[in-house]
Design the sequence.
């Protein structure tokens, strides 16, 4: 099938646009989450999203729209546990993750077990993205872009040196809460692309690749977005062409990009070292 | 006007061990105070209480006459933290790191402009780190990083400069230049509060000493320090040695004059 033929399908167009928007959103937010050592929040919240989706399916409401408030509430719970229960961040993430997946399994069992809809959220279904979900992805991308623009320097200070940021009058608690809440919404929408099982990879891998090569902070954010969007567009194309699950193909391409960036970085360092010796 | 007013500050960490007990003092315009004390004496804790990074169990801090909870004029303060080691993978250039010192001068959305870049460049020149402004912060040596963070602390032209062991990772020449720089800023009106381990290092630059050991042992002028009974009591038989050491380090105290 030619690329022109591939692009002529309306569902493919929706998938590509939604996928690119979600990829850019998760990657840009991921840069801050990775550097704040909150990257596993994607994993934890995607498990909570399972509860939201199951709740949506059992109540016949839209799973994505039910999952958004459930996951955002859980994101706040993670911050509360971290602050008040004298638990490290990874501990708080583990607690909420376990709670989310347990509640999801119980709700799914009450609903009579897993059905096809629930499976599509577990493993992703970007080619079945609806018009409403596309609009939600666009709204989320716009909100994330706005937040990053407005709080860019506060977020940078938060991840670079939290104590200094506080002494410079940055409300670090508010900034972190905003970051975590918008990330929670992104996790739910990203489930549609790669599924609950792989959503954290969308947050972790493109920023990790970008951080290997970026010469400054802004370029790290832009590179992460570029890598993630490329992986999603290529992933959807190859998945369609080879009849493979899109979510898995997207993640494999992301990992190949990461390996490539790692090799480039090693080459650059080696070249720089040998230039110094000469 | 008092720049810092601390009243009856008491703080204990969650383990229950008291870090500071009943600390009261004032810092005024023109003060260049050296804060000294053994390891675990509460020096860094005191700084964190002053800046609101920790909340005291008892007592109150006022900055520029305003209670800490209502204080908003963070642009008046420059702060350099102890042993600052930001995550090593953040691709922030030295210039971007130093420019963060101007965050407290901006309103949301905090967008930096050409004027901010000029101010940052000037601060980096003052701190002696402009030459490597485009290098990634994590690729710099410890001493170079310290200079960049010093530029960050000074970028907003603060009226109160708080430095927690700023000479760590600096060689002796760089330490001398740093304290000369601080003396210049102090003469231009900034109050300076410096934590250090080595009294001889800053002895000739400061005009006040604060000695902490969970309690406030001493806070006053250099002249008072050299004749203070609290100092004699605290240092005991080591007092004459300390005074001679301070004499050798820049004539802080008269030889054998205690």
Sequence:
């Amino acid at each position: 099938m030619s690329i022109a033929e591939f692009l002529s399908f309306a569902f493919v167009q929706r998938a590509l646009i939604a996928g690119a928007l979600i990829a850019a959103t998760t990657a840009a937010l991921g840069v801050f989450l990775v550097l704040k050592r909150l990257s596993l929040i994607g994993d934890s919240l995607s498990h909570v999203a399972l509860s939201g989706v199951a709740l949506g399916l059992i109540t016949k409401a839209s799973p994505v729209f039910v999952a958004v408030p459930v996951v955002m509430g859980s994101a706040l719970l993670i911050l509360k546990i971290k602050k008040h229960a004298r638990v490290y961040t990874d501990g708080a993430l583990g607690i909420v993750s376990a709670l989310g997946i347990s509640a999801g399994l119980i709700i799914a069992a009450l609903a009579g077990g897993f059905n096809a809809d629930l499976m599509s959220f577990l493993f992703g279904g970007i080619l079945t993205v609806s018009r409403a979900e596309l609009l939600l992805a666009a709204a989320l991308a716009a909100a994330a872009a706005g937040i990053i623009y407005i709080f860019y320097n506060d977020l940078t200070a938060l991840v670079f040196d939290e104590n200094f940021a506080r002494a410079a009058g940055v409300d670090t608690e508010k900034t972190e809460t905003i970051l975590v809440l918008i990330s929670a919404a992104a996790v739910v929408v990203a489930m549609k692309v790669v599924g609950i099982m792989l959503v954290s990879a969308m947050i972790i891998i493109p920023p990790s690749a970008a951080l290997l090569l970026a010469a400054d902070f802004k370029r790290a954010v832009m590179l992460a977005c570029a890598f993630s969007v490329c992986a999603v567009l290529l992933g959807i194309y190859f998945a369609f062409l080879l009849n493979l699950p899109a979510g898995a193909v997207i993640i494999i391409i992301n990992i190949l990009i990461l390996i490539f960036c790692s090799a480039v970085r090693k080459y650059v360092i080696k070249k720089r070292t040998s230039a110094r010796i000469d | 006007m008092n720049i810092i007013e601390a009243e009856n500050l008491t703080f204990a960490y969650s383990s229950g061990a008291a870090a500071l007990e009943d600390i009261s003092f004032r810092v005024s315009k023109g003060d260049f105070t050296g804060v000294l004390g053994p390891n675990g004496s509460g020096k860094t804790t005191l700084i964190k209480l002053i800046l609101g990074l920790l909340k005291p169990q008892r007592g109150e801090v006022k900055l520029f006459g305003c209670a800490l909870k209502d204080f908003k004029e963070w642009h008046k303060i420059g702060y350099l933290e102890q042993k600052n080691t930001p995550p090593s993978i953040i691709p922030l250039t030295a210039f971007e790191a130093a420019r963060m010192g101007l965050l407290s001068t901006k309103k949301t959305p905090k967008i930096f402009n050409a004027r901010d870049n000029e101010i940052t460049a000037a601060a980096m020149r003052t701190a002696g780190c402009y030459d490597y402004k485009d290098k990634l912060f994590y690729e710099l040596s410890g001493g170079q990083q310290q200079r960049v963070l010093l530029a960050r602390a000074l970028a907003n032209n603060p009226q109160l400069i708080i430095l927690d062991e700023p000479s760590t990772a600096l060689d002796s020449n760089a330490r001398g230049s740093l304290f000369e720089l601080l003396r210049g800023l102090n003469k231009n009106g900034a109050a300076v509060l410096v934590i250090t381990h080595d009294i001889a290092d800053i002895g000739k630059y400061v005009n006040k000493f604060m000695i902490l050991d969970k309690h406030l042992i001493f806070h006053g002028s250099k002249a008072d320090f050299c004749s203070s009974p609290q100092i004699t009591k605290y240092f005991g038989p080591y007092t004459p040695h300390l005074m001679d050491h301070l004499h050798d380090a820049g004539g802080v105290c008269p030889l054998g004059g205690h």
